[in-house]
Structures are given as C-alpha cells and as structure tokens.
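Risk register update: the risk of archive-format incompatibility is retired. Evidence:
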Amino acid sequence: MAAQNNQTPTPGKLDQDQEAYLRASKEIAVKFIETGRLSLGSFNAAFRQIYTTIKDTVEEKKEA
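Archived output:
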C-alpha cells in the first residue's frame, strides 16, 4: 500500500491555503460591492485579481 502524499489535494477538494485565499477574497469582494467600488459586471476580473494578489502576497511571505 502506497503512502498518501499530503501535498496532493483530493480531486474536487481545496487545500487549506486555497480555502483561506478564497475566503479572504470573498470578504474583500463583498466589501467592495457593498461600498460601490465593484460592480457585478466587473466581478470576474476583479475577483481573480483579488485572489491572485492575496495568494502571491502570502506565498511571497512564506518564501522569505
């Protein structure tokens, strides 16, 4: 029996970091929508930018 690699996420399931990035991105996007700084028409692009920025920032800090 092969040992399961903890680095490989189960298909269809997010790892803890991905969940945290999504949760933080969602909270920021919701605040931007509530304050009128983000419209639903630009949500897709804005959410991707928010997610990528959070992910890159966290991973950059992990490497340092």
